[in-house]
Amino acid sequence: MAVSLRITSCIQFDYKKARSDGDLKENKIVECRGTTGLMPAAECAMDASYTDPLCHKAVVLSLAMLNDPVSIPHTPDSIGTEWLTDVLRRAGLLHRAVVKAITVLPIAAGSGFVGQTARLLITYNEPEPSAPLTLFAKLSSADSGVREQLRRVGIYETEAGFYRDLAPLARFPLRVPRPYFDLYDVRTSASLLLLEDLRQVEFGDNLAGCSATDAQLAVRQLGLLHAHFWDSPVLKELSWLRALTDEAETRVGIYRAMLPRFEQRCAEFVTPGLLQCAKQFGQVLPEYFTQSSTGPQTLTHGDFRADNFAFTGTGEDRAVTVFDWQVARRSRGPRDLAYFLSGSLSIEQRRSLEESLIESYYKTLVDNRVHGYSTQDLRQDVQAGLGAPLATLIVAGGMLDFSSERGTQLFKQLCARLGAALEDYQFPTYVASLMPRNTTPTSRPSMEQHEVYSAGYDPLVLLGLSIRTAARDAAFFVPHLKPDMHVLDCGCGPGGISVTLASLVPQGQVVGIDIEDSQLDMGRQEAQRSGIGNVEFHHASAYALPFADATFDAVLAHAVLYHLAEPMKALRELWRVLKPGGLIGIRDSDAEGDVYHPVHEDLAQFWRLAGRIINRNGGDVRFGRKQRQLLREAGFRNTVGSASCDTFGTPSMTAGFSRYWAEIFLEQHRRLILTERWATSSQLATMRTALLDWGNNPDAFYARCRCEAIGWK
Predict the structure, then answer these.
(1) What does the pLDDT average to over 648-671?
(2) Which of 382-386, 398-402, 439-443 has the highest mean pLDDT?
(3) Which of 46, 376, 442, 664 is most buried when burial is the number of CB atoms within 10 A of its CB?
(4) What is the distance between the alpha carbons of residues 278 and 597, in angstroms, rounded to a whole number?
(5) How many other C-beta atoms lie within 10 A of the C-beta of residue 26?
(6) Of 62-71, 119-128, 439-448, which has the strongest mean pLDDT?
(7) What is the value of pTM for the model shown?
(8) CATH class as words, domain 70-199
(9) d(CA 345, CA 211)
(10) How far is CA 524 from CA 250, 492, 519, 536, in A?
(11) Which fold has domain 459-712?
């Protein structure tokens, strides 16, 4: 396996001798990094040594990390004194002293969806000048499933790569937190960063906005960053630095999944113009990513806003440090400028300052040897760059919790600021220019208006859906399959069951259908990752399947029918597309078969409320028990019923399960609950607390009953 090695000291490194001595074993140097930048692996392999001309000393690549790997703690609290002593020695910060005690101060309560952060207060057995007294620790999520989901957008890999390969360079044009140590495990996506603890600074604030002076400072520094890496070949040598096209399918899928939830959750903040713009933008996202990955490319921060700035000094000594590099990309630089203008300044302030800020940015580019890029090019790129904050707004609005007072104010403000910027820059006109030409819209059958997928498409839901497999979730159905069968997976979601079904019918074919396009995109990606070619995905409604009579040998409907107001209509449609003698399998919940412990009246009240919501949205929480009857009434014969359970019996499972219901489900349906007067705001707050307390109880357990039935045509 190729390993990227770090520079840790300024002594000569003899590549050929290290190879002959066997120090590198089966590994190879993939990058050499010094204060002047990166040296390609091929060039390094040809030279006996690499000397940095700025340092007047030779640069060594440490071999210690190869032959003596370091474990990655799962949580800040699991960072021990021996572990921290070891890594600080490896980083060259400790020579004599030993870490005696660590006080962990979480930056935010609990663990977020993306990761965990904490401040470490360190005590040593003796003073040492280079030993840091505080550190900022940034860890990946403790949940392996979450890490696997985020692997798709490279959040951990990107930030670890940035702080390993770019942040330490003497010529890096921006101030960033000093990196002390970084680890990233490509197998598990686990990561850890130990960074300089930014203290005695003025942190930026999106709510307050930037002053005119700080805005000018930030934009000039942004220009220096972009000019330094403008069309630099170094960027393509960084395996962790993605272009937008590298992840277009994933980004499109997430955006389209979050858009309905954004519309539902944020209705009171969003103007009709902003919402319409967001919907139109969703239609052209693939074209947008393609265009953004052409033309002059540079290193972009991706989240360039006041909340990610720290200021020090005054007057001419004023400086800005920029942090949070998880979404750095190789793209057009003005995306960052558009992001800053539309989010970190009030509407009036932006309108009064933007001309001078754009001119300042352009002057910085020109003064730093960027040629062949006109002011017209810049203005067009700023207009197009508004797609970046728009995409972030939709995904964050659908995904994150903005229920705190500051969160609500910030989100309301972002909607207003971005909506005004989209209008001022005529962004809809730009979106229209991306629309494919000579295409005729096709009408699609859709879910009935009174039906809603009550679970929604929050990342926690998508995580649960993405790990489904035929072996685990359709075990009652699998024994009846034959290798050459043509199978329909109705309501396939992100495709986990469809893809694993396809592996069981290698001479046959599987077709997955769903009404949510983002889920279909995820299914196609899963098939590609798994190397499964006999599966395809189509947009279709269970009420009007776009297939001829007697098309399939078998059909599966997993966790679909109990969401439908007219399950019999769907069953008769599934009967129609089955061949004579064909097999059907259905699996759905039945709420009265669920068990949980410990029992609490506030929880019981919540489960009654959840059932009421699902039934109101067109579903039936007691559907499972009726499966055999409904199959028989739809025309199927020889029906057989069975049941199994999905269980939640570990601390991480119960915590995640309760967090979904408390922070996502209740919030998603809050307006309906209050409008129908099913509960008061105070009662909802009590239920939320009870759910979270239950999920963190060491004795918590939940078993969800899944009824199953098979039949033949």
Answers:
(1) 84
(2) 382-386
(3) 664
(4) 43
(5) 9
(6) 119-128
(7) 0.60
(8) alpha beta
(9) 8
(10) 10, 11, 9, 7
(11) Rossmann fold (3.40.50)
